[in-house]
Write a structure and sequence with these properties.
Layout: H1 4-7, H2 14-25, E1 39-44, H3 47-65, E2 68-73, H4 76-85, E3 94-98, H5 99-107, E4 128-130, E5 133-146, H6 147-153, E6 173-175, H7 181-192, H8 202-212, E7 216-219, H9 223-232, E8 237-241, H10 242-249, E9 255-258, E10 265-273, H11 280-290, H12 293-303, H13 316-319, H14 326-331, H15 337-354
Parallel strand pairs: 1-2, 1-3, 6-7, 6-8
Antiparallel strand pairs: 3-10, 4-5, 5-8, 5-9, 5-10
Helix pairs in contact: 2-3, 3-12, 4-5, 5-15, 7-8, 10-12
Keywords: Signal
InterPro entries: SBP (IPR006059)
Protein name: Branched-chain amino acid ABC transporter substrate-binding protein
Length: 357
């Protein structure tokens, strides 16, 4: 279906249509140069996110600007690795990653300063990671479970992070490793609930090794693979992101997502314009376009990314399935990425040696 504000471009020139409609929606008051025969390389995660961008986000941008956008698929750590491998000769123009790897990219100097634009005034303060990076969507890390499987077993719905320790889930639990942000959040929460935290991770490792690992059927980093195991009945509960939950729910699967009583953890999908960048201006325009109310709503509908643009209005049924609105956003737990990124390599080595053996 043609985008409402882009559909009107047929009555005016391509360039006028983009200036007046596309970037007006993103809150950008500027005149655009032509980008003939230009290719923009956008890196982001695969699966349902990749399909959403390729089918519902990128085509309108390409048509309005007369450019080609190539989506470079990979998880966030893979995108960061590509930036490191291509240092000084970057082939990626726009990088979209989970907030943890994005903070690493910022520390390594891979992102240029974002061009000021009115749309940034419409964002939740939490969304501005730095002058060089912005969140473009938000999800919550919590627990997903197969509602039908629980009913058949007569089990009550999980309510707490500590439910991951319950031995009744032995070999029925799916868990992302800590190379995945969902898994990392889980480790930190278990440390916090047992007297530690980012600066004292030992309690988290102890709980995982002694109580959670025996319940885990598989350590799964690929979201699509976790969905498959849930659909096949191999696992009945897993640590999930609210966005992934919406994507699976959209297939008709009876997945329920819960915010643990101790709190769900904020996970932001962030974007930056990579430096050095042969398409700097176009990269900035793409990020602003993704922040526009229309694209923010598409992300919410298709992939469960809660809008970071405060002006977006969602229908109540959809809003209830994600961290939407100031009150819900403020309730999310935050993590200390500065400490985490200093320790992450050490933790990963320890994890591989003691947990995921």
């Amino acid at each position: 279906m043609t985008s409402p504000y882009l559909a009107r471009t047929s009555s005016i020139s391509l360039r006028q249509g983009l200036s007046a409609l596309l970037l007006a929606a993103a809150g950008v008051g500027m005149t655009l140069p032509a980008h003939a025969e230009t290719t923009l390389y956008v890196a982001g995660v695969g699966g349902s996110t990749e399909q959403m961008y390729k089918t519902r986000v990128i085509p309108a941008f390409e048509k309005a600007l007369g450019v080609k956008v190539v989506y470079v698929s990979g998880n966030s750590t893979e995108t960061l690795a590509k930036l490191q491998a291509q240092k000084g000769r970057q082939q990626i123009n726009v990088a979209m990653m989970d907030d943890g790897p994005m903070y690493q990219a910022l520390q390594l100097g891979f992102c240029e300063k974002l061009t000021d634009a009115p749309v940034y005034q419409d964002l939740y303060p939490l969304a501005r990671l730095s002058p060089e990076a912005t969140a473009v969507g938000m999800v919550a890390t919590g627990i997903g479970y197969n509602e039908e499987a629980f009913k058949k077993r007569g089990w009550a719905a999980p309510t707490s992070w500590t439910d991951l320790e319950d031995p009744k889930y032995r070999q029925l639990l799916g868990m992302p490793p800590i190379t995945n942000t969902y898994g990392l959040h889980s480790l930190i929460e278990m440390a916090r609930l047992n007297g530690g935290g980012e600066k004292d991770i030992d309690p988290g490792f102890a709980v995982f090794e002694k109580k959670i690992a025996p319940n885990v059927l598989a350590w799964v980093s690929a979201p699509g693979e976790m969905d498959g195991m849930m659909q096949n009945g191999d696992v009945v509960m897993a640590v999930y992101g609210s966005g992934r939950a919406v994507a699976l729910q959209n297939t008709g699967f009876p997945l329920k997502f819960i915010y643990p009583k101790e709190g769900a953890v904020a996970l932001q999908v962030a974007a930056c314009s990579v430096t050095p960048n042969a398409q700097s201006e176009l990269s900035q325009q793409f990020i602003q376009y993704v922040l526009s109310p229309e694209i923010q709503k598409i992300q919410s509908e298709s992939n469960g990314f809660a809008p970071v643009n405060r002006t977006v209005e969602l229908p109540p049924e959809l809003a209830a399935r994600m961290p939407y609105g100031q009150e819900k956003v403020d309730s999310l737990l935050k993590v200390d990425w500065d400490t985490i990124n200093q320790k992450r390599s050490e933790w990963t080595t320890r994890w591989n040696r003691t947990i995921e053996r």
